[in-house]
Amino acid sequence: MIYGTLVHETPAYYQRRLDSARQIVTLIRAMENEDFLCLPLLFGLCWIIACDVLIAEQKRLRRLSIPESECTQAELDSTLDAMARMGVFYPTMKIEVRNVTRTEDA
């Protein structure tokens, strides 16, 4: 997933990053509770980046008054829920959920 300042300067990179985040959401939504038993922490760390991307997209859509921000919010909620479920096994993920939630509110 592309992450950095170049993304904000190049629309193609921004879209690629957004598409990657949405692919992560698709995978998360397909997961069962049992799947969380064997996930490494690295997955959760990738989800943090996906959350950052979705928050940026949501802010962009709201700034432009585009109604699709509701869809982006649902994607973000799915990702945060998965991170919270992972937090049962990795307590640091609970902290990250709080951090992402604070970022979203800012």
TrEMBL record:
TM region(s), chain numbering: 36-55
Keyword Transmembrane listed: yes
Keywords: Membrane, Transmembrane, Transmembrane helix
Protein name: Uncharacterized protein
